[in-house]
Amino acid sequence: MFEIEGRMLAGYFGGLPHFILYFVVAAALLSIFLLVYVRLTAHDEFSLIRNGNAGAAAALGGTMIGFVLPLSKAVAQATSIPDLLIWGMAAFVVQCLAYLVCRWLVPGLSEKIESGHLASGLMVGAFGIAAGLLNAASMSV
User: Fold this and answer.
1) Pairing of strands 7-8, 3-4
2) DSSP sequence for 57-118
3) d(CA 134, CA 28)
4) Looking only at Cα atoms, what is the longest distance across the chain?
5) What is the mean pLDDT of residues 54-68?
6) At CA 22, angle to CA 16 and CA 24, rounded to 5?
C-alpha cells in the first residue's frame, strides 16, 4: 500500500464511509427542508427564479444558507445519525420561524417578492442567514 508521511493510504480513506453517510443524510435534510419551505411560502420560488426574479433568488438563497450553517455544525458535532437528525430539525424549525417573522413584519411579502421587489427578498434572506448563524452558535454538545 502507498504511504503518505509515514501513514498508510488506507488510513486516510478509513473515514470515507462515515463521510458519505453524514453527507447523504445532510443532503437529504436540505432537500426535505427545501420541499417543505417552498410550500410554506405563498409564492413559487423556483418558477420565479427561472424567470429571473432576483428577490426570490435572494430569499431562497439566504434561507438555504441559513439552514446549512447550523446543519454543517450539526454534522461536525453529531455523535450519531439520530443526533444529526435532531439538530437538523432544530435548524429546520428556526428557518421556518424566521420566514414567518418576516411575513409578519412585511405585510404582502409574497406579493412583493413575486412582483420583483429585491428588498423584500433580501430581507427574507438576511433573516434566514441571521437565524442560521444564531442557531449554529447556540448548538452545543
Assistant:
1) antiparallel
2) HHHHHHHHHHHHHHHHHHHHH-SSHHHHHHHHHHHHHHHHHHHHHHHHHSTTHHHHHHTT-H
3) 23
4) 64
5) 97
6) 100
Reported confidence tier of residue 2, pLDDT bands at 50, 70, 90: low
Enter the C-alpha cell of residue 12. Answer: 486516510
Whether the Cβ atoms of residue 70 and residue 30 lie closer than 8 Å to each other: no
pTM over 0.70: yes
- Are 54 and 117 in contact by the 8 Å Cβ rule? The answer is no
- pLDDT per position as a tens digit, 38-51: 999 989 999 999 99
What does the alpha-carbon distance between residue 12 and residue 126 come to, in Å, rounded to a whole number?
38
Q: In whole numbers, what is the pLDDT of the chain averaged over residues?
A: 91
What is the spatial distance between Cα 129 and Cα 134, in angstroms, rounded to a whole number?
Answer: 9
- C-alpha span between 94 and 98 (Å, rounded): 6
For residues 88 and 75, what is the distance between their CA atoms, to the nearest angstrom? 9
